[in-house]
Amino acid sequence: MKNFLFLLLFLVSALSPSFSAVSLPVKVERIQPITEVVYITNTGKKYHKTGCRYLKSSKVKTTKAEAIAAGYTACKVCKP
């Protein structure tokens, strides 16, 4: 009789994904964000989007993560 009940529960859980006799932990992996390209200047301490009005004299391409690691902060005008 126990084997029959076990088999019945197994078949129902296999046929219906919403029904589960046993709850298993689910491992959720964090998705890495897409690398965001920003620009810094030779003299400033801010990082900018490509069309920012403060990128007139110099424009050095980098990633947002690298700019933050180097001590740059976001421009309050273009808000990258």
From TrEMBL:
Q: Which domain of life is it from?
A: Bacteria
Give the signal peptide range. 1-21
Task: Write down the SUPFAM superfamilies for this protein, in alphabetical order.
Answer: Ada DNA repair protein, N-terminal domain (N-Ada 10)
Q: Which UniProt keywords apply?
A: Signal
| Statement: the UniProt record of this protein carries the keyword Signal | yes
* Protein name per UniProt: Ada DNA repair metal-binding domain-containing protein
Q: Which organism is it from?
A: Mesonia sediminis
